[in-house]
Design brief:
Elements lengths: L3 H7 L5 E6 L5 E7 L2 H6 L10 H6 L5 E6 L3 H15 L6 E3 L6 E4 L8 E4 L8 E3 L5 H15 L19 H4 L13 H15 L3 H17 L3 H17 L12 E10 L2 E10 L2 E11 L6 H15 L6 E4 L6 H12 L4 E3 L4 H31 L1 H11 L6 E10 L2 E11 L2 E2 L5 E4 L8 H22 L16 H4 L9 E4 L3 H13 L6 E6 L5 E6 L2 E4 L5 H35 L6 H10 L3 H6 L2 H5 L6 H13 L5
Helix pairs in contact: 4-10, 4-11, 5-9, 8-9, 12-13, 13-17, 14-16
Length: 635
């Protein structure tokens, strides 16, 4: 048994990472410590000295573990990796999954390649980027191929190697074909030097050189060559963009500022490369322990630069982060050379910080407006429905519908809505087993019986997990771990009125379940006009968010049932006509359906037509033709 007080005494006075677990062994917090013994003990001492968030977390700690490392630097790196891997509930989480593209030049090869990659590696090659606009990156790459005719293949080409057949790019004039020895290593190397200058931002220098070459070609009356240089100049000018923020003193720089309210923040990053601002991005933080600038900036730097492939030489921040020296050491080691972290107080750099902060505030306000609209559309809409029928704490709703054509292939759908959002992972579909013919009530009785009997069986097989030392004795959190049918709804929605509701109540009563059931009553145009609950019809405001949510659920329940029915009809039809033919399986059936638009065309095709299809032998063609013409009544 894990006794926290006893384990605190065993903590070593060494640097490391500590990992907090709850009663279900889930990781809820990861932190680093210069001295594990001192840092971890702080969580279990005077609660008044803890932040509100940490005070909520501590009672949930059932046990903890720790990893001892050699230095605080190693602890920092390990902490970043563990947070990214486990995404603990009580760690502030950076919400972002962006991997920016780079343009890579394999300068270590005899005939270097230039291509787009999203993996920045510590190798001998040249990387340019990151490009925040993937479209601009692709456009740049296409221009480079047209201008400089660099190779686009992944072949290993050695100087003086054997000739190979050139690819399509050679034939359309976009490659000088080093694979076929049509250009020497020295000539190709000069082209790559031009490419590197271009990617390094020296477009003005390249344009100047091209103009000189254009004039020289023109003087020699080589007008086609002069026109080629002219086209290159125009293409480069078309790609260039005016830059409002320019600083030629620094080649690479990130500018970081944020705006925060409560436990949420938006961090804005401006990217400057080659002295030019190439883009900007914003990142959302949630679950912040503190909105102190040093804390937010420190947390962001650790999470962001542990996940990005590129670290600039200089980083401007609005505040010095906690563990400044440690972070600087880590960033410098990641980059392979010294990184400068500056908190400007005046001048152009401070204005850049102010601009980033202003942008962060704009994004934050937009996000909060969006969240408010989303809350009205989901959680508040569900609360509105619950209030209308007089229920409290309605989190999960389930809706059911039957689909068939004159009793053929009876199926049913179960659609789930939690906190006002459709939860597609919990949808279920049923093929009716005991009812033949158009009897919707009997079908619904079977579906609900099967669904809730499954749920009861799952709950019976579920063993409660007692809380650890930090929780209340005797409580369980088993509901959080239950998935599938074991998650019982707080409200059942029936796609119909009194009759459907009564069927559901009968099923629930037979299984000793007490779950509210509500019917969606329709008007003459098959539109919901109200709710049927506890033997009375309740009108609903058709302009309210609750009605809109109800309509979404109803439409989704219909859609899910109809699509399932349609898929079964399709399978049934295809099976009856094709799968009964000797020699026809899924692959051959796919070939036939690809070559013929309809089953009728397959039926009318003669043996000669069928046998000409690749993959259909003459013997199989005879089988197909014979099947349709000897069994016309069966299809």
């Amino acid at each position: 048994m894990f006794v926290i007080e006893d384990e605190l005494k065993k903590l070593p006075q060494k640097p490391g990472v500590y990992i907090m677990h709850d009663a279900h062994d889930a990781i809820i917090y990861v932190g680093k410590a210069k001295v594990l013994k001192n840092r971890v003990r702080q969580y279990f001492q005077d609660p008044e000295r803890l932040t509100t968030k940490i005070r909520k977390m501590v009672p949930q700690i059932a046990w903890f573990e720790y990893i001892v490392v050699d230095s605080e630097m190693e602890a920092l790196v390990l902490e970043c990796n563990l947070i990214k891997e486990h995404q603990p509930k009580y760690n502030a989480m950076l919400k972002d999954d962006k991997m920016y593209p780079y343009i890579k030049c394999t300068v270590s090869e005899d005939f270097p390649r230039v291509f787009i990659t999203r993996r920045y590696q510590r190798d001998k090659e040249k990387y340019f980027g990151p490009y925040t606009n993937a479209g601009a990156c692709k456009e740049t790459m296409e221009l480079l191929r047209k201008l400089y005719k660099i190779r686009n293949c992944s072949r290993v080409i050695k100087d003086g190697g054997e000739k190979t057949k050139p690819c399509l790019y050679r034939h359309i004039g976009q490659c000088d074909a080093p694979c076929n020895a049509e250009i020497t290593k020295e000539e190709y190397g000069k082209i790559i030097e031009e490419v590197l200058r271009f990617l390094g931002g020296d477009t003005d220098g390249i344009i100047k050189d091209l103009k000189v070459k254009m004039l020289q070609a023109s003087e020699k009356m080589e007008f086609e060559l002069a026109a080629e240089y002219r086209d290159k100049i125009n293409a480069i000018n078309a790609l260039k963009q005016d830059q409002k923020a320019t600083d030629f003193k620094t080649e690479e720089r990130d500018i970081i500022a944020f705006y925060a309210e409560d436990d949420r923040a938006v961090v804005q990053v401006f990217f400057m490369r080659g002295g030019r601002m190439i883009g900007r991005e914003h990142y959302f933080f949630k679950g912040l322990e503190s909105t102190e600038p040093s804390y937010v900036i420190g947390d962001f730097l650790k999470q962001y630069y542990s996940g990005t492939a590129y670290v600039p030489s200089e980083i401007l921040t609005e505040a010095e982060p906690e563990d400044l020296e440690l972070i600087l050491q880590w960033l410098s080691e990641s980059k392979g050379k010294k990184v400068h972290l500056i908190t400007p107080k005046k001048g152009t750099k401070e204005r850049m910080i102010e601009l980033a902060k202003e942008n962060a505030q704009i994004v934050f306000k937009q996000d909060m407006d969006k969240l408010t609209r989303e809350a009205n559309r989901t959680v508040k809409a569900q609360e509105e429905l619950a209030d209308l029928i007089g229920l409290e704490n309605v989190v999960r709703m389930e809706s059911y519908d039957i689909s068939n054509i004159s009793g053929f292939l009876n199926v049913a759908s179960m659609v789930v809505c939690e906190n006002g959002k459709l939860k597609k992972n919990d949808y279920r579909k049923f093929r009716i087993k005991t009812v033949s013919g158009p009897d919707d009530y009997a079908c619904m009785r079977e579906v609900l019986t099967r669904r809730f009997q499954h749920g009861i069986d799952e709950l019976k097989n579920k063993k409660p997990s007692p809380r650890g030392e930090g929780g209340s004795q005797g409580e369980t959190d088993e509901v959080d771990e239950i998935t599938g049918f074991g998650r019982l709804p707080d409200l059942i929605l029936m796609d119909g009125g009194k009759g459907q509701v009564n069927i559901a109540k009968e099923v629930l009563e037979s299984l000793n379940l007490n779950i509210p059931v509500c019917g969606m009553v329709k008007d003459d145009r098959h539109r919901t006009r109200g709710l049927y609950f506890e033997n009375k019809e309740i009108p609903i405001d058709i302009h309210g968010e609750g009605f809109k949510l109800l309509t979404r659920i109803q439409d989704e329940t219909h859609r899910f049932a109809i699509e399932y029915h349609k898929s079964l009809r399709g399978k049934n039809q295809i099976h009856s006509v094709l799968d009964d033919i000797k020699g026809i399986g899924p692959a051959k059936r796919k070939i036939l359906m690809k070559n013929f638009k309809t089953l009728e065309e397959i039926k009318e095709a003669d043996v000669d037509t069928l046998s000409k299809i690749e993959g259909i032998s003459e013997k199989l063609a005879e089988e197909i033709h014979s099947f349709f013409h000897n069994n016309e009544g069966d299809s």
